[in-house]
């Protein structure tokens, strides 16, 4: 069995096809359970990644005595330097925001 870690067009199309079949309720219960578990697994992975990023940002907040949103505003305005810590902190902030949106999208889909 080959495990593909990078997107493959064949599998991308297959996932889209499964999603369509799922939405139309044209798959069996075992396939539906498997898809639900995959979504739960990926959601859990994203949450863990977000928690790790938030821990690192909290360390920066303590170290530099400012909240991430305050830092990010100053960083974008060019009011503070571009040290390696600041570049990493800004990148982590963007990554965290992206992951929050992903989780929000999944959560809003679950509520439908």
Secondary structure layout plus pairing:
Elements: H1 9-23, H2 29-64, H3 68-76, H4 84-110
In short:
The protein is an all-alpha fold and 112 residues long. It has one domain (29-110).
Structural class: mainly alpha
Instruction: Please bin the fraction of helical residues.
Output: over 70%
Order of helices and strands: HHHH
Count of DSSP H/I helices: 4
- Overall shape: it is elongated
Mean residue pLDDT: 89
Radius of gyration: 19 Å
N-C termini distance: 36 Å
Provide a descriptive summary of the structure in words:
This protein has 112 residues and is an all-alpha fold. The protein has four helices and no strands. Helix 3 (68-76) packs across helix 4 (84-110). The two termini are 36 Å apart.
Task: List the keywords.
112 residues; mainly alpha; single chain; 0% strand
């Amino acid at each position: 069995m080959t495990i593909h870690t990078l997107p493959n067009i064949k599998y991308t199309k297959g996932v889209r096809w499964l999603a369509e079949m799922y939405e139309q309720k044209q798959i069996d219960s075992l396939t539906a359970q498997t898809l639900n578990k995959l979504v739960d697994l990926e959601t859990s992975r994203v949450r863990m990644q977000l928690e790790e990023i938030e821990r690192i940002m909290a360390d920066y907040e303590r170290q530099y005595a400012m909240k991430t949103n305050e830092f990010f505003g100053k960083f974008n305005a060019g009011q503070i330097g571009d040290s390696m810590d600041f570049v990493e902190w800004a990148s982590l902030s963007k990554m965290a925001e992206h992951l929050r949106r992903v989780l929000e999208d999944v959560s809003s889909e679950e509520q439908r």
